[in-house]
Amino acid sequence: MICTICDSGTNNVAALKSLGVTENTPYFLVGNDRIYAVFDPPHLLKCLRNMLKIHGKVFIDAIITIDGKKYHVKGE
Questions:
Q1: Helix-strand-coil percent breakdown of the chain, rounded to 5?
Q2: How far does CA 74 lie from the centroid of its chain?
Q3: Which residue has the higher pLDDT, 8 or 33?
Q4: Are 46 and 30 in contact (CB under 8 A)?
Q5: Do residues 6 and 41 touch, judged by C-beta distance below 8 A?
Q6: CA 39/CA 8 separation, integer angstroms
Q7: Angstrom distance (rounded) from CA 76 to CA 51
Q8: Sign of CA dihedral 48, 18, 63, 42
């Protein structure tokens, strides 16, 4: 597997969108090779920290999958 890792800066997000990367298709093609796009987890945690500092709360509404089982997480 080949992947590219970047932060979620607007230029990076725009570049990935222009390459056709979506939630359902998290890769782009170079020749016959799939290149998967991954956002850098430390930067995602930093964004979460910044939102907590600014707003004091984070509202979560997500579906996570663990060992093939889906869980709906919702809360404040």
A1: 30, 40, 30
A2: 18
A3: 33
A4: no
A5: no
A6: 6
A7: 13
A8: negative
Q: Where do the DSSP E strands lie in 1-76?
A: 2-6, 27-30, 33-39, 60-66, 69-75
Long-range contacts of residues 41-45, Cβ cutoff 8 Å, at least 24 apart: 43/7, 43/8, 44/8
Give the HSE-up count for residue 24: Cα atoms under 13 Å, Cβ half-sphere: 0
Backbone angles phi, psi at 18, to 5 degrees: -65, -25
CA 62 – CA 60 distance, rounded (Å): 6
Q: How far is CA 70 from CA 8, 39, 66, 76, in A?
A: 25, 22, 7, 20
pLDDT tens-digit series, residues 14-72: 999 999 999 899 999 999 999 999 988 888 888 888 888 888 876 777 888 888 888 88
